[in-house]
Design a protein that fits this description.
The protein is of the alpha/beta class and 441 residues long. It has 19 helices and 16 strands. It has 4 domains: 127 residues, 3-Layer(aba) Sandwich (Rossmann fold); 150 residues, P-loop containing nucleotide triphosphate hydrolases (Rossmann fold, 3-Layer(aba) Sandwich); 68 residues, Helicase, Ruva Protein, domain 3 (Orthogonal Bundle); 48 residues, Homeodomain-like (Arc Repressor Mutant, subunit A).
């Protein structure tokens, strides 16, 4: 049997040699070149079954090389190699047809795993399974959307490192579930802790995060360990990190940089080993520009940054999410069906509350439906909810909050519950909107 031909494309000679040696040791033919243009010429002379391509190369970058390969030889498998700072590029490469990716620095064991499941016995077994029907990921994340799958694959690769991860996206898109998936993949022995930075009063957030010593303030009758110490050797989720008060951001930055916490009232720092994942439904770049969030903390949090798409941008996920939630809320083992008309209504709806709203809608439908089939009239949807207008993330957020408040007669508590936000977040947003109106005048 003629061994498969593998092509390595990287402008770093050492990387080319290391990869080629590993590939040849496993019984494949390996050729290496230093640029995308050289690789295209090599493919004309001797077609390859699999390509390992760096994303950052002089002349022609990895994305352009990938597009050219797929345009003429779509059957060739392309594995892209990228660094932590180019996560969005890796996602784009997956959308452009890349088979898989390696996050630098990587071990040659990862290369062996990829070769085994792409060129080994059974061919692309593991990769084909990723594309067949619903994909159930750990921690309850369910999606067949290419962008979501690309994000999850990237996070699975970086989970074993200590790099901080920033997960951005609208409320209800599943940011906490993805954070839990990262912890599960990381195999860290410590537990998964959560701090909702928007729900805890500013006066208490510092002691909640960092703990306090006995006598640090009135009522501190004993030492209390903070969330960072409690998550030692584990993962800590800073939920709605964009709501962290400015005075506390400097202390948070120091903890992330130095790996130690200062308890309130303490006189010596305490070392901690914590993997931090931050989530936010705010555009932190805009918050930095508006001087509401520290730039140095923003860059420290976004070592690896991803943005989860809203449900309206991934309509193909609605049917499999419907199946997932119907199975979750089945009645005495009976899983209800959804009529075609009801499914059509679900697929047409804009889902301003995203996956959380879909889940609540189906939960209610299961409880209220008589018989074994959910019909359109059994769905609690507000068909009068306007579609979100195009524009910046902040504009869409403002419109959604204002429209929701109008629907509930200005009741901030009800609006916060519908949107999956805290009342404090609603109050802060309204204050910002009023300031904005004043400036325009």
């Amino acid at each position: 049997m003629i061994p498969h031909q593998v092509l390595v494309v990287d402008d770093e000679p050492l990387m080319c040699r290391s990869l080629s040696t590993t590939i040849q040791r496993l019984g494949y033919e390996a050729t290496s070149v230093g640029s995308g243009r050289e690789a295209l010429r090599q493919l004309e002379r001797s077609p390859s079954r699999l390509i390992f391509s760096d994303m950052r190369m002089p002349g022609m970058d990895g994305l352009e090389f990938l597009r050219r390969v797929k345009a003429v030889r779509p059957e060739i498998l392309v594995i892209v190699m990228t660094a932590y700072g180019s996560v969005e590029t890796a996602i784009q490469a997956m959308k452009e047809g890349a088979t898989d990716f390696l996050m630098k620095p990587f071990s040659m064991t990862k290369v062996e795993e990829i070769l085994d499941r792409t060129l080994g016995p059974g061919g692309q077994g593991a990769l084909v399974r990723r594309e067949e029907g619903p994909v159930h990921w750990v921690a309850g994340v369910v999606s067949r959307d290419p962008k979501v799958q690309g994000i999850l694959m990237i996070l699975e690769r970086v989970a074993g490192s200590s790099a901080t991860v920033l997960i951005q996206g609208e409320s209800g898109t599943g940011k906490e579930l993805v954070a839990r998936a990262i912890h599960s993949w990381s195999k860290r022995p410590g537990h998964f802790g959560v701090v909702n930075c928007a729900a805890i009063p500013e006066s208490l957030l510092e002691s909640e995060l960092f703990g306090f010593e006995k006598g640090a303030f009135t009522g501190a009758i004993s030492r209390r360990v903070g969330k960072f110490e409690a998550a030692h050797r584990g993962t800590l989720l800073l939920d709605e990190a964009g709501e962290t008060p400015m005075p506390l951001q400097a202390k948070l930055l120091r903890t992330l940089q130095e790996g130690e916490v200062d308890r309130v009232g303490g006189n010596r720092p305490v070392k901690v080993d914590v993997r931090v994942v931050a989530t936010t439904n705010r555009n932190l770049q805009e918050e930095v520009r508006a001087s509401r969030f520290r730039q140095d903390l923003y860059f420290r949090l976004k070592v690896v940054a991803v943005t989860l798409p809203p449900l309206r941008e991934r309509p193909g996920d609605i049917p499999i999410l419907v199946d997932h939630f119907l199975a979750k809320y089945c009645r005495g083992g009976q899983v209800l069906k959804v009529s075609k008309a009801a499914m059509s209504r679900l697929e047409r709806y804009s889902w301003p509350g995203n996956i959380r709203e879909l889940e609540n809608c189906l939960h209610a439908a299961v409880l209220l439906t008589q018989g074994d089939t959910i019909r359109p009239e059994g769905l609690s949807l507000d068909e009068n909810t306007p579609s979100i207008a195009p524009g910046s993330f902040r504009e869409m957020e403002r419109q959604l909050i204002v429209e929701t408040l109008e629907r509930v007669g200005g009741n901030r508590t009800r609006a916060a519950k519908l949107l999956g936000l805290s009342v404090r977040t609603i109050r802060n947003r309204l204050r910002e909107y009023r300031r904005g109106v004043g400036k325009r005048r």
